[in-house]
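Tutorial, part two.
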Amino acid sequence: MKKFVSVLLCGLMAALCIAPAASASDYYATASYGTITVDGEIDAAWANAEAFTANALKSGEEEGITTEWKAMWDEESLYILAVVTGDKAHYTGSQQSWGDGIELYFDILNSKPEDFATDDATIQFGWHKDDLEYTAYKGTDQGIINSDGTFEIVCVENDNGYVYEFSLNVADFCPAASMKAGTIMGFEIQINSKNAEGDGRTSAYGWSDPDNAAWQYPYLMGDLELLAAPVIEEPVVEDIAAAPQTFDMGVIAAVAAVVSAAGYAISKKR
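Running the prediction step on this input gives:
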């Protein structure tokens, strides 16, 4: 029943334009077409996606942490890869947003509302000292219900930081969404760092929200456009047998003329 309500609400928003008309953001990124496996290993397909950064300090003190992120999509899901450099895991803090972790913000229909609607959500993933990781959500009650069970996330720690890989089944989260080339969604990515004891995070970095307010106002999210799959043209193989033989015939005619002339010269000499 809850999923039915989700479909109905998303459909009404898309069809009746209940939310304010979307406006272009100062922050623009693209998602390449393709499907990947969410396992923390960077698939070769990610090489086709353009890289962006989430290095703007949103709160706390500068720690020299940098993040490169990419996006991909297919007919059902949106995929996010984030490579965080210069951070180490700390399992302290009472809230997931105040420890090491990642936050992903979505305005699926890109309605740029002043408050969260059913197609909007913030999904937070964090390290925790007791169970290593957990997730939490922000948004409307229905948006939170929609988020549950519609995503996968894996975090792999390495010598220099982390690799996050994430997928959101957009078709399940908001069935009214148009997963096709040219679609633009609202999006923000935030990296939280915890490098000291206590309950406060040390810093937070983002892409489109330098004032750290998109968690309250979805219209501050950037624009993420789904790009068409590249058209791969097969090379044209010329059929040599069917190619015009004008050059060959010309050579043959020239040779024949030389032979004929030589024969005439020999006969004259005799």
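The longest strand covers residues 184-193. In part three we will examine how such features are distributed along the chain.
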